[in-house]
Design brief:
With 113 residues, the protein is mainly beta. Helices cover 0% and strands 33% of the residues. It has no helices and 13 strands.
Length: 113
């Protein structure tokens, strides 16, 4: 019997091979045999429409008019958004915009100031 390493994420001993990947059935983490020594928590890099790297607390500008769901008016091009927070998901930016309130934006529709 082949001795497989424990899961690097949850330390489960019930890992199995699936082709060239190792899989943990408990947390669904997948990795290759040589990568368990690398940092398992890879940090996602967020970039704006121009390719500039975004960080929490940055200020950005909206680059096109965006329709706001549930609101009769649109978010206009050139609107400045201060103190953004980056999150994982479909919409990468959590923020508060004066006149609109809390919103989620996609990084592809903003540029860094």
């Amino acid at each position: 019997m082949v001795d497989l390493p424990n899961c690097p994420k949850c330390n489960s001993e019930y890992t199995y091979e699936d082709g060239s990947l190792l899989v943990c059935p408990e947390c669904a983490h997948e990795w290759t045999l040589g990568s368990e020594n690398e940092n398992s928590e890879d940090k996602k890099i967020f970039k704006d429409a121009n390719g500039n790297v975004l960080n929490d607390g940055d200020s950005v500008t909206v680059i096109k008019d965006l329709k706001v769901k549930g609101c009769s008016s649109a978010l206009k091009k050139g609107t400045k958004v201060k103190n953004i927070r980056l999150v994982d998901g479909d919409h990468d930016i959590d923020c508060k915009i004066d006149g609109f309130g809390a919103m989620k934006l996609k990084t592809e529709f903003v540029k860094k100031l």
